[in-house]
């Protein structure tokens, strides 16, 4: 059987795309291998009408609603994919081979947490990456930012909207220019360059940071700006072009550099959020739907975006 669209990834991006494509009468199969990036968090914030909902519950409802229109789901990992002008092939971890006219990658990214004891336990609760997602709940606490250079200055000054007690921990040289140091001094943000040994965590609550010297500093929250990589092997297997920050390069319709392969969600943008992922899934799905229509007719619009409504 040849599916109209295979979607790899059942997070907010893939689920939104599945809903749109199923409602457009497309034969769509979603492959999903796990829980998604925000699974460690109990609540998802800044989600229209669903602020504070559980990420797992949002996914459960998203899947149920897409299934209601005929989308199908496989709890399986896609391990290989290839594509050409005729269509796409995807191989699952158990060896099953699937074929489709189009492939939509919504496989997300992986945060590479620093290897410091305590951090993983508190991740998503009091050790976090995004003030917009968690700042309100953690407001007013003595807060550490674990970062260096420009990223550290940005995150530390941004946090002043939520707390006036911010310390930048660089776990080594802070890599700050004289100007950047002056900005932090002016905003009363202390910089500590000493090596760290661990975070003191009770349950999922960060209570302090431990320096290699043995000193302990009390904090109630830590913000980390971890590097990321794309989740899974499909982007490399397909040879997708990347941006200079390593994300998948897409055009304004979410088409990648490889024929018949599209991408949406976190793996395509630095502005990574539940609702943004959903919005890009919506756009990608509409564009794929029209691309399939165009493939079956002589109507070839110069600009797919002009076909939106
Ligand atoms: C701790 C934390 C808390 C967050 N809190 C918020 C918040 O409050 N509000 C907010 O807006 N954003 C929040 N975010 C960001 C949000 O989680 C992401 O922006 C969003 O999940 C991106 O959706 P996505 O569909 O692109 O990817 P994901 O949600 O990561 O979903 C990708 C899916 O693809 C699957 N997958 C990957 N590879 C394969 C494969 N090869 N085969 C099959 N399946 C595969 C994965 O298993 C996963 O289910 C948070 C992030 C983190 C880390």
Task: Describe what you observe in this structure.
- It is a single chain.
- The protein has 309 residues and is α/β, with parallel strands linked by helices.
- It folds into 2 domains: 2-111 and 227-307, FAD/NAD(P)-binding domain; 119-224, FAD/NAD(P)-binding domain (3-Layer(bba) Sandwich).
- Helices cover 26% and strands 26% of the residues.
- The protein is built from 8 helices and 17 strands.
- The strands form 4 sheets. Strands 1, 2, 3, 4, 5, 6 and 17 form a 7-stranded mixed β-sheet that branches.
- Residues 8-14, 31-38, 40-41, 44-46, 77-78, 106-108, 111, 124, 129, 133, 231-232, 234, 265-266, 272-275, 277 line the site of flavin-adenine dinucleotide (FAD).
Give the SSE map.
Blueprint: E1 2-8, H1 12-23, E2 28-32, H2 55-68, E3 72-75, E4 78-84, E5 87-92, E6 97-105, E7 109-111, H3 119-122, E8 127-128, H4 131-134, E9 143-146, H5 149-158, E10 166-169, H6 178-186, E11 190-192, E12 196-202, E13 205-211, E14 216-218, E15 221-224, E16 228-230, H7 234-238, E17 261-263, H8 274-295
Parallel strand pairs: 1-2, 1-6, 2-3, 6-17, 8-15, 9-10, 9-15, 10-11
Antiparallel strand pairs: 4-5, 5-6, 7-16, 12-13, 13-14
Helix pairs in contact: 1-2, 1-8, 5-6
Bound molecules: flavin-adenine dinucleotide (FAD).
Low-confidence stretches: none
Q: How many strands, which pairing sense, and closed or not: the largest β-sheet? A: 7 strands, mixed
Helix share of residues?
Answer: 25-40%
Number of β-strand runs: 17
Average pLDDT level:
96
Q: How many separate domains make up the residues?
A: 2
So how many helices? 8
CATH class of the largest domain: Alpha Beta
The CATH topology assignment of the largest domain is: FAD/NAD(P)-binding domain
Kindly provide the radius of gyration, computed on alpha-carbon positions and rounded to a whole number of angstroms. Answer: 22 Å
Whole-Å distance between the termini?
Answer: 30 Å
CATH superfamily of the largest domain: FAD/NAD(P)-binding domain
What order do the helices and strands follow?
A: EHEHEEEEEHEHEHEHEEEEEEHEH
Proper CATH architecture of the largest domain = 3-Layer(bba) Sandwich
Ligands, deduplicated: flavin-adenine dinucleotide
- Portion of residues in beta strands equals 25-35%
Basic shape = elongated
Structural class: alpha/beta
């Amino acid at each position: 059987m040849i599916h109209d669209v295979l979607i790899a990834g059942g997070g907010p991006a893939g689920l939104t795309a599945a809903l749109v494509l199923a409602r457009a009468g497309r034969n769509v199969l979603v492959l999903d291998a796990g829980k998604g990036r925000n699974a460690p968090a109990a609540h998802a914030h800044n989600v229209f009408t669903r602020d504070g909902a559980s990420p797992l519950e949002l996914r459960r409802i998203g899947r149920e609603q897409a299934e209601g229109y005929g989308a199908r789901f496989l709890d399986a990992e896609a391990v290989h994919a290839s594509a050409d002008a005729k269509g796409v092939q995807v191989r699952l971890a158990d060896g099953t081979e699937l074929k489709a006219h189009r492939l939509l990658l919504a496989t997300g990214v992986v945060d590479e947490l620093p290897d410091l004891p305590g951090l993983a336990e508190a991740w998503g609760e009091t050790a976090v990456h995004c003030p917009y997602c968690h700042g309100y709940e953690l407001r007013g606490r003595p807060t550490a930012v674990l970062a260096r250079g420009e990223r550290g200055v940005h995150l530390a000054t941004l946090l002043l909207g939520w707390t006036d007690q911010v310390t930048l921990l660089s776990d080594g040289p802070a890599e700050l220019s004289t100007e950047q140091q002056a900005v932090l001094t002016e905003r009363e943000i202390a910089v500590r360059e000493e090596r760290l040994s661990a975070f003191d965590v009770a349950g999922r609550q960060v209570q302090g940071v431990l320096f290699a010297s043995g000193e302990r500093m009390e904090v109630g929250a830590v913000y980390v700006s971890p590097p990321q990589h794309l989740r899974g092997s499909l982007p490399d297997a397909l040879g997708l072009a990347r941006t200079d920050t390593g994300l998948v390069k897409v055009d304004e319709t979410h088409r990648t550099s490889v024929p018949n392969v599209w991408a949406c969600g976190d793996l395509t943008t630095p502005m990574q959020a539940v609702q943004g992922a959903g919005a890009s899934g919506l756009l990608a799905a509409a564009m794929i739907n029209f691309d399939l229509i165009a493939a079956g007719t002589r109507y070839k619009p110069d600009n797919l975006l002009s076909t939106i409504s």
